[in-house]
Amino acid sequence: MIEPSLQLGGGNWANKSDSLLGYHKDGANFYADELTFSRNTLGSYTDANGLIQSMPYNLLSYSEDFNAGWSLIGGGSFTSNAATAPNGTTTADEYDLGGYVRQLLTIPANYITFTLYVRAKTSSASFRVGILGVGDSAIAQTIETVDTSWFRMSVTYDNTSDLAKGVFFNIQSGDSEVYIWGAQVNIGSTALPYFPTTTRLNLARVDYKDNVNGSLLLEPQRTNLVTYSEQFDNAAWGASAGGFVRTANATIAPDGTMSADRIQFPTVDTFLIQNTSLTAGTACAGSVYVKGTAGQTFSIAPGGIDRAPFTLNGEWQRITHTATAATDFILLGPISGSNATDVFLWGCQLEAGSYVSSYIPTLASSVTRLADTASKTGISSLIGQTEGVIFADVTIPTMANTGGNLVIMSLFNGALTNATVFDVYDTGDLLAYHINGTTQAFFTKSSFTIGRHKIAFAYKANDFAFYVDGVLVGTDTSGTIGAQDSFGLQYGANQFIGQQYVNQALLFKTRLTNTELATLTTL
Question: Are 220 and 371 in contact (CB under 8 A)?
Fold first, then answer.
């Protein structure tokens, strides 16, 4: 089989700020192809260790550019890109000492760890780093030797409040200048591997929940209407009766931090409750992470009614339920026939919509995660203009309409008069078609289900074919090909519409044989 002209995923994922990296191969060489990516908010995902993480987990912006995202208080100056950083690039900044350095941000109530790479400008100089203002008293400090000249300074704090604060640091040295690079603040009492950021938010999520090779997680905009989603001892969570015992930060949560609460219910048929801004009569989805005794049952009721019971397995599990809201509140608790009155809870979510999306943490107010978008324009050279194949290995978690029929993947031109598209309808139909001014080929795979699928559409003048999961859906021997110069994931009708896990996406500039298409799409 010929080499694809564009590859994305398949176990080879690379992420950078505002870009998702695809690649193509030419002989033995690989070349990066940057796809424009946007979300402009944080988004959660499951990492390779099974932990719920925020993307990015580095809470700081401009982690390597101290002239951009940082303030100098009381003197000093920065010279950008003045030295070789620990990663071998010329991105370390020179810091002419004076006063202290600050970046403002909101730090959640949790253990947090600040790290900074520091190097003396002359080999004989000594220095020390002071970290101020990130929380309460430091509980741990470490220095990691990176090489003969660079050190990674680390300080952990028990941050007992959730106010808008800042990270402050100062450096004292025998020299008047030092080099600095790679600042990071992450939640938890352990310094995580350094994660570089620029403007920080536009970073794609590669999720490992059900795929050891990782899947690109793409979702529409959603809002968690629950406040204090991890603080069940907060007054925002009411109780249906007296006698509740709530112990904050009682065990390790699904994100690996000591932030899960223990809730002891006085009896069955009692519950925690929170009023939200949910509108009665709308579709809603509720979720919460629960850990309790295996075999016992625990319930969740988004929209106030229809308490759905779930059997616990002794480990952390995310229980989810969808309903039509009768009221604006969500409730959690054991129900009749169950003795699950002593459980750990973490990460509750209530969202308007007919399915549950990835977790959105909140504090004092609701939080919105914006839609993921991924596309690449100006790539006529990577798209077959007279023949080719588009292929997608995707996991579809829902077929619910999100403002338009779900789009898996598309090729198109700027005016959208020429396009090759995979669409999913909430009726259970998967469509594949090519447009050259008018529709040239159109295929429908009925009874399409949620879950993982491999799909491929081959196009060539008077020679079209559509395969799903190794099976030929149909062919068409009449039609012409229109020029296309752009590639998009879940993009159609001038907007990004869909929800999916992209395991792999491929473009070919040559129409593969039907035998090759069957092999390519076999699960």
Answer: yes
